[in-house]
Amino acid sequence: MTDVLGVLAERRVVAILRARDADRFAAVSDVLLEAGVPVVEFTMTSRGAVDALRDYAARRAGEVVLGAGTVLTPEQARESVDAGATYLVTPAVCPDVVAEGQRLGVPVLPGALTPTEILGAARAGAAAVKVFPASLGGPPYIKAVRAPLPDIPLVPTGGVGIADVRSYLEAGALAVGLGGPLVGDSCDGGDLGTLADRARAVVAEAAGVNQ
Q1: Domains held by the chain: number
Q2: What is the CATH number of the domain that holds 42?
Q3: Is residue 143 flagged as an active site residue?
Q4: I need a surface site. Which of 8, 13, 122, 192 has the fewest CB within 10 A?
Q5: What percent of the chain has pLDDT over 70?
Q6: Which of 10, 34, 100, 130 is catalytic?
Q7: Domain residues for 129?
Q8: Which position among 10, 41, 117, 205 bears the catalytic label?
């Protein structure tokens, strides 16, 4: 079983792929992997995401930590894990998805914002909590939440820019999730060369920040 939290603690970045359809997710993931971002989330709101997940997991198993995002039901959780997802992400606290993830043996990162939601997610069995949307409070909010809840791993997501990565990590985040600021329009036909440049910039921002 993949040690998802261990990889997150080492790499510190999750790339979130969301588009109208998932046709280009494999090509984008290849570029991210080559640039040093091996933790990737295929969002289930993208048409064809499950098939893309299955194909990419079969081709790149052992090289990437591949997850499913915007998982809202236990059925989606099972479908995603069957396709090769090694972790699941939800946009809100979904106890039924967390329970299904535990049954399937994969970590779940539920989305939460307030201390009450974050603690509730952890008590429900979350492996880590996606603080979403993180931009509402920024790094100072992460630091403030971690003061009373230091043992809950937090992954700020939503509005996190490349220039913000180091500040979030220095505030105590386990890792950060980046969608648009990192991926840009690459999933919709955008230039993969500029994607590689952004990915290398994110890796540089995360480098050297201690847990």
Answers
A1: 1
A2: 3.20.20.70
A3: no
A4: 192
A5: 99
A6: 130
A7: 4-206
A8: 41
